[in-house]
Amino acid sequence: MAETRPAPRRRRKEARPQELTAAALSLFVEKGFAATRLDDIAERAGVSKGTLYLYFDSKDALFKAVIQEGIVPALHAGEVLLDEYDDPLALLRAILLGWWERIGSTELGGIPKLMMSEARNFPDVAVYYQQEVIQRGTALLRKAVARGIERGVFRKVDPEAICSVLIAPLVYRAMWRHSFGPCCGQETDVAQYLHTYFDLVLNGLLAPAPGGDAQ
Amino acid sequence: MAETRPAPRRRRKEARPQELTAAALSLFVEKGFAATRLDDIAERAGVSKGTLYLYFDSKDALFKAVIQEGIVPALHAGEVLLDEYDDPLALLRAILLGWWERIGSTELGGIPKLMMSEARNFPDVAVYYQQEVIQRGTALLRKAVARGIERGVFRKVDPEAICSVLIAPLVYRAMWRHSFGPCCGQETDVAQYLHTYFDLVLNGLLAPAPGGDAQ
DNA sequence: TCTAAATTACTGACCAGTCAGTAATTAAAT
DNA sequence: ATTTAATTACTGACTGGTCAGTAATTTAGA
Could you tell me which residue ranges the HTH tetR-type domain spans (chains A, B) (predicted)? Predict the structure, then answer.
């Protein structure tokens, strides 16, 4: 009988917090906050439950850490695009596609699902998230849209409302991946979905003609 | 000291199941399945916890009942629209607006949020929901889109993918109402949102010109 | 060594589910 | 009608298991 190795029991003060929040994120997204046990998080991270309490005061504190360190860093990447692109159409495309590639298609894509599920159980985190993530992301999108309208490239639409409408299909798809996706077989092809999405919204947004009104 | 009335203790065998699932739905949507106590559901419905077990075998069974009786009836309403409308544009509008008015804007609008949150904890319910609600709803939308493409009213787009893209902004908004909505102050005006939404997607979907290509 | 990191064993609150009993309703008997 | 018996809807105290959080102990590294 080969006995199971007792435990390596490494000490790695620096890397731990990341490993713990990563493990917590994936389990919170999968099962929800209340249904996730700290023992499971610890096991996935390769430590014992007690170790969790060396780095986080409580399960709630762990939740907050997951949300905070998850998304905020990814926003910088979007904001620099405003200066990188001049053409409003290319800019908008880059922002939306960037969101998908950096967040939606990664593990981070579970955060919107998690945050939506738990917003009313953690009102303070929800407010934080709404201000630091949603409003900031919306502001970014709004600038891109406004620039397009100013230059006559986009039709005149309500900039505030359009932002939600634009991001919704991407968030929706990301949430799907973390809910029905694993249960209900075949997801449609991502590339096809993105293509159809951009085709619809950009076509719906573009002013009818480049110069004045003729084709 | 006027003593508190002990309890009316009404007996209403017929109405109970509805009252219980209604109470359960609103609490499940608010707190999530795991974080909702049966005592709270019972209290909101004006009965004791024991009564719950006269009508449902378990907390899980109650969840399933909430989902099943919640949405399925509302689908019929959509399916009859296929025959009521001939014009594809009006049909599509009626379907999407109908979804908002019958589901999205009502208490039922919490079900997508609930189902997304709990899909991976209830794979069998998720499969049921996916087949009986999502696929059925998608099929309905697809027919409307296909009719529009056939008649040259809509541009040629992938019918499968477009359905998700079309419904996403409505579902997203409904989920918002039940998550961030109560926490984070001002929601933008619904009418304005719907107007902008229809403006974008219908404009994005319409073929460039009625007859051939000229404006 | 000796300190810090991690584990293990433990506690107590909480909650799904149970069940003996009570109140309301109906039916039967006078 | 009015009491009595039988039935049915409902209650709430109780139990057993679970799990967040803690305290005692062990192990790794300087």
Answer: 14-74
Confidence of residue A70 (pLDDT cuts 50, 70, 90): confident
Asked if strand C comes closer than 7 Å to B43 Cβ, the answer is no
pLDDT average, residue stretch A58-66: 95
> Could you say which of 3.40.630, 2.40.50, 1.10.3470, 1.10.357 is the CATH number of the domain covering B70-205?
1.10.357
| Closest to B49 measured CA to CA, from B12, B20, B13 | B20
Query: Distance between CA atoms of A66 and A71, rounded to whole angstroms?
Result: 9
Going A32 to B29 to A109 to B121, the CA torsion angle's sign is positive
Query: Are residues B196 and A165, on separate chains, in Cβ contact within 8 Å?
Result: yes
Q: Which of A29, A111, A196 would you mutate first to test chain B, the one with the most B CBs within 10 A? A: A196
For range A84-94, the mean pLDDT: 95
Dist CA A166 CA A163 (whole Å):
5
What is A69-205's CATH number, 1.10.357, 1.10.10, 3.30.200, 2.30.30? 1.10.357
Q: Is the CB of A2 under 7 A from strand C?
A: no
Query: For B134-171, how does the pLDDT look when each residue is reduced to its tens digit (9 = 90+)?
Result: 999 999 999 999 999 999 999 999 999 999 999 999 99
Task: State which residue has its Cα closest to the C1' atom of C14.
Answer: B37
CA dist B37 and B24 (Å) reads 10
Alpha-helical runs (H) found in chain A: 16-31, 38-45, 49-55, 59-79, 81-84, 88-99, 110-118, 123-129, 136-150, 159-177, 190-205
Q: Which uninterrupted H or E stretch holds B106?
A: none
pLDDT for A149 equals 96
Could you tell me if B138 and B171 are in contact, meaning their C-beta atoms sit under 8 angstroms apart? no
The pLDDT of B111-132, averaged and rounded, is 95
The residue-averaged pLDDT of A112-127 equals 96
